Amino acid sequence: MGEIALLGLEFYGRHGVHPEEGRLGARFVVDLWLEVPFEGRGDLLEETVDYAAVYALVERIVRGKRFYLIEALADHLAEELLEAFPRLLRVRVRVHKPHAPIPGVFRDVYAETEKDRS
Questions:
Q1: How many CA atoms within 13 Å lie on the side-chain side of 54?
Q2: Residues 118, 83, 98, 21: what is their CA dihedral angle, to the nearest 10 degrees?
Q3: What pLDDT digit, counting tens, does each position of 63-77 carry?
Q4: Which of 19, 89, 111, 117 is 20 to 30 Å apart from 78, CA to CA?
Q5: What is the domain count for the chain?
Q6: Which residues are catalytic?
Q7: What band does 113 get if pLDDT is binned at 50, 70 and 90?
């Protein structure tokens, strides 16, 4: 097996439980780890996962849907990726909310999920 990582995908979205989060929106960052078979593969795009298409799917979901929880967003992204890309064996999705409405100083907040075809 092998892994393809797409890290630091940034999108503007309207996720969160507070009404102003839905109204104003914020920046969200998505990290992906995609497990795909590498052994015996050639050098053709059709033999792996097209990460430009992965990016487009993630962008469409993060920008186009609303989730109250980043946990739900991460889970939905994982499910959609597995459904859309048959060669994808396992996916780990991390959704960062760097400007979460938390009273205090913090570096990052994220939710992470991992799913496979089983």
A1: 26
A2: -120
A3: 999 999 999 999 999
A4: 19
A5: 1
A6: 97
A7: very high
**Residues linked to residue 110 through DSSP beta bridges, in sequence order:** 96
What are the backbone dihedrals phi and psi of residue 29, each rounded to the nearest 5 degrees, phi first? Answer: -120, 135
Q: pTM score, two decimals?
A: 0.92
Confidence grade of residue 59 (pLDDT, cut at 50, 70, 90)? very high
Read off the CATH number of the domain in which 101 is found.
3.30.1130.10
Crossing angle for the helix pair 51-64 and 70-84, nearest 10 degrees?
140
User: Half-sphere exposure (CA, 13 Å, Cβ side) for 117?
Assistant: 12
Q: What single-letter amino acid sits at 31?
A: D
Cα–chain-centroid distance for residue 91? 9
Measure the CA–CA gap between 105 and 102, rounded to whole angstroms.
8
Domain that holds residue 14: 2-116
Per the CB < 8 A criterion, the answer to whether 48 and 3 are in contact is no
Q: Six-digit token pair at 76?
A: 């939905």
